[in-house]
Amino acid sequence: MAKILIPTPLRHFVNGQDAVEIAGATVGECLEKLTTDFGDLRKNLFNDEGKLRSFVNVYLNDEDIRYLDKTATAAGDRDTISIVPSIAGGR
Amino acid sequence: MIQIEKEAWEVMVAHARAAYPRECCGAMLGVEKDGARRVSVARPMRNAFEGAQEDTYVLDPSEQLQVEKEARARGLSVLGIFHSHPDCDAYFSRRDLENSCPWYSFVVLSVKKGEFDHANSFLPNFDQTAAEKEQLEYSI
Ligand SMILES: [Zn+2]
């Protein structure tokens, strides 16, 4: 079971929990399962094509999964998955 | 609606003035109740843009993780992100919108000639194609 930390603005989609334990072999599987169990969360993380939204960065422990195996990154017990929005701007 | 407590607001303005003429950025922590966001702590963050910061800011994702942990430890939530517009009005630019996220309030502080001028808050949509203005209250 990996632990997925839920950012505050998304907690009301998961019955107010700040973290959800999910069984899955990879980070992608865990996120799929999470957004299947909590359907209203789905459009926050995935676009209509089923791809992670451009502003959604996912971390396994302290590592960005883009620099690991992306959504195929293995996730196991004691792993923590964090969802961090990518934010920037300019005038 | 987003309400920013005096102490937090002072930190935001001080951070914006100190960064001038560069853009500053940071996180706003607090609690959300009945649709109103109340910010009690402003957390300055590093502008991670590796170039001219006069018109660009980028949050450092590892610092975002850190801030999220700090918020949890204090029983607070990250409610929004702030950044400054040096010598420019506090509008939500196309680049602000395209690199935003619908989960947060985005407060923009206009700093003119090194002094705070005005501020606005915005709520971007899911597709990053539009942002509505949010009612912003702060105490000085
Ligand atoms: Zn901006």
The spatial strand order of the largest sheet of chain B comes to 8-7-6-5-2-3-1-9
Radius of gyration of chain B: 14 Å
Largest sheet of chain B: 8 strands, mixed
The CATH fourth-level homologous superfamily of chain B: Cytidine Deaminase, domain 2
Mean pLDDT of chain A: 94
Q: Element order, helices and strands of chain A?
A: EEHHEEEE
> How much of the sequence of chain B is in beta strands?
35-45%
Mean pLDDT of chain B: 96
Overview of the molecule:
The complex is a heterodimer of chains A (91) and B (140). Chain A is α+β, with helices and mostly antiparallel strands and 91 residues long. Chain A has a single domain, classed as Beta-grasp domain (Ubiquitin-like (UB roll), Roll). Chain A has helices spanning 27-37, 42-45, and strands spanning 2-5, 19-22, 56-60, 63-64, 80-85, 88-89. In chain A, strands 2-1-5-3-4 form a 5-stranded mixed beta sheet, covered by helices on one side. Chain A starts with a strand and ends with a strand. Chain B has 140 residues and is α/β, with parallel strands linked by helices. Chain B has one domain (2-138): 3-Layer(aba) Sandwich (Cytidine Deaminase, domain 2), CATH 3.40.140. The longest helix of chain B is centred in the first third of the chain and has 14 residues, at 6-19. Chains A and B meet through strand 5 and strand 6 of A and strand 4, helix 2, strand 5 and helix 3 of B. Strand 6 of chain A pairs antiparallel with strand 4 of chain B. The structure holds zinc ion. Zinc ion sits between chains B (83, 85, 93, 96, 108) and A (89-91).
List keywords for this structure.
heterodimer; A: 91 residues; alpha+beta; Ubiquitin-like (UB roll); 5-stranded mixed β-sheet; 2 helices; 6 strands; B: 140 residues; alpha/beta; Cytidine Deaminase, domain 2; 8-stranded mixed β-sheet; 3 helices; 42% strand; binds zinc ion
